[in-house]
Amino acid sequence: MNRRLTRGFIAETVSRWSATEKRALFVGNGYLIREIIQRADSAGNFYLFGGMGLASAMAAGYVSCRVGGKASVLEGDGNFLMGLSGALYCGSNGLDVIHYVYANGVYESSGGQIIPCTPQSIDLMVRGMGYQCAYEARTEAELSTVLSDCRGRLGPILVWMTGAADANVSPRPRPSIDMRDVTFRFQSFWAASARPDIEG
Amino acid sequence: MRATGDQSALIPTQTGSRLGVCDVLVRALSKSVVDIAYGVPDSVLVSVLDALASQMPTIILPREDLAVAAALGAYLRGHRPLVFMKNAGLGNALDALLSLAMASRMPLVVLIGWAGSGPDTLPHHTVWGDRTRAALGLFSDEILSIDESTEESHFVKRINRAFEQNAITSILVMPT
Question: Which residues pair with B113 in a beta bridge?
Answer without folding.
Answer: B86, B173
